[in-house]
């Protein structure tokens, strides 16, 4: 028996909701922009093999791979429930660049925990599994935040409510929005990009943040796309992180002049997203970003749609 799970890329924050809003995205050309994890029966308690385009960027020791930590916390939770852990042989296909702002660690975490859970016939429910995913993301980035793992696992646009035993709920979005994702090919560490943020904010920024986030969620629920797009503004992180992203200011200005409805940093960067409601505009912006924002052979640009599915079981054998 083996189970394979694919977990998609995600946009943390979506500019307007620092740490509390995130969106899962997939390229419209069918490219699988995310990690895959396969869990098979093993002959020892745990074994990990890594492959894929970005395998060389992973820590050399399996014990330092987040997939190993996922297995450890999964074992801990099964132990609490008195359920036997099966010996597993895991394979990580690492397709996501690390430190990209596309939720790369979230992809590995979500694919690993979802696959482990399915392999054991779902002993953990959705909320228990998502809580573990948040714990693992916190382990890597220095602070628990669900804005990558929740959309990556559940799909769509997710808002972190973290109340009444609920971690995240989905927010309706707009069918005709295209998300142009441009990864320049350089690395920005999430932990470092968090460490440069101020510990306190001015009252006017707090008020603006509340207006933008409340306005965005309201506009999504009342299906006002123009208003929703206008509310995609970041006063919490972008002003402080811009300096980490060479060419970002110019690229955002180009995208907005070329007809993007909004443009911002994806997660902690360096990937930027540009939102369009016209495919021709999205493709024009994508071509420009490929020429001017991408810095090396590892960079790429994809025109995406919201991925409403989140992590998905693919190609399993029973
Ligand atoms: N399977 C894995 N996938 C990604 N990173 C991993 C994995 N295992 C261990 N790591 C380590 O976790 C850290 C991830 O760093 P960081 O949080 O900046 O990247 P990220 O998750 O790719 O960022 P982002 O969410 O912005 O895409 C790196 O130090 C990396 O070596
Ligand atoms: N909300 C997180 C996302 C990291 O991808 C941050 O901006 O630090």
TrEMBL record:
It is found in: Cytoplasm. InterPro entries: GHMP_kinase_C_dom, GHMP_kinase_C_sf, GHMP_kinase_N_dom, GHMP_knse_ATP-bd_CS, Homoserine_kinase, Ribosomal_Su5_D2-typ_SF, Ribsml_uS5_D2-typ_fold_subgr. Pfam families: GHMP_kinases_C, GHMP_kinases_N. Signal peptide: none annotated. GO terms for molecular function: ATP binding; homoserine kinase activity. Pathway: Amino-acid biosynthesis; L-threonine biosynthesis; L-threonine from L-aspartate: step 4/5. Its EC number is 2.7.1.39. ATP binds at residues 97-107. Catalyzes the ATP-dependent phosphorylation of L-homoserine to L-homoserine phosphate. This is Homoserine kinase. Belongs to the GHMP kinase family. Homoserine kinase subfamily. It comes from the Bacteria. The gene is thrB. It comes from Photobacterium galatheae. HAMAP family: Homoser_kinase. Residues 218-294 form the GHMP kinase C-terminal domain.
